[in-house]
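Worked Example 4.2. Consider the chain below.
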Amino acid sequence: MNINSATTLHNGVKMPWLGFGTFKITEEGQVENSVLEALKVGYRHIDTAAVYGNEESVGRAMKNSGVKREEIFLTSKVWNSDQGYDSTLRAFEASLKRLDTDYLDLYLIHWPKPLNKETWRALEKLYKEKRVRAIGVSNFKVYHLEELMESCEIVPMVNQVEYHPRLQQTDLLEFCKKHNIQLEAWGPLMQGKIFDIPLMKELSEKYNKTISQIALRWDLQTGVVTIPKSVTPERIKENADIFDFEISKEDMERIAELNTGERVGTDPDDVYLHNKF
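Applying the procedure from the previous section yields the following C-alpha cells:
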C-alpha cells in the first residue's frame, strides 16, 4: 500500500484511500499553497465543497500544479440551501465553473435533508450524463441511507462522515460494507482533540510515529478512506507518511475500546430534524 493506493467503488471507479481535506481553509493564498503542497507530496485526492468558499482556489492550485486533471480525484458537495432537483443541477454547474473543470470525480449531498430524494435524482442524472464519475452522500446515518435507498436507482458509492477513534459508528460501517458503500472519514484527528488521548500518545511512542499518523493509519486499516487537512507543509507531508507500518491486531482492538460516541462536529439529526443549517 502507498499514497497512490485506491479502493474500488461499486461502479469500478478507483478512489485513493488518502485524500487532502480543505474544510475551514478559506484564505485564498493559503488554500492554493496547501493544495499545491499536497499535490507536490503525492496526494491525488482533493476534497472541497461549495460551502467551503474555496473551490476557485482549489481549481487554480490544480491548474498550476502541473498534475494532469485525470490523475486527480476531485470531490465537491451540494449545500443544503441548494437541495432539490433543479437547484442541485444549477449548484453543480456553479461548482464546475469555480473549480474550472468539466467534470467531478465525486459529488456528494453535504447533509441529510428532507429533500434528499429529489437531490439524489439530480445526482443520478449527472452520473448518467457522465458529468461526474461517482455520486454519494455525506453525514448520512443508517436510517437516512435506508430512506434514500427505498427509491433510488443508483446506490450511493460513498458516505463521508465524522469518523475517528471516539466515534467509530460501527453499525454504519457495517451497513455501508454490506451495501458496498465506501465510508470516508472527515475530522479524523478530532479537530485536534486526538492529541489528548493517552493511548494515542502511547502508540505514537511504540510505533515511532506521530499521533496523527497512528489515527490515519487506523482509518485505513478499518477500511475507511481518510481526508486529513493541514496548511503546514511539514504536516501535509507527515500525514501522507503512513504506508510504511501497520498497527497490530491487538493495538487495533485497544483503539476500538476508545469508542464513546463523542462528536466534534454537528450531529446529522440536528440538520435533518431541526434544520440546523
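The longest strand covers residues 73-78. The chain has a mean pLDDT of 97. Compare this with Example 4.1 before moving on.
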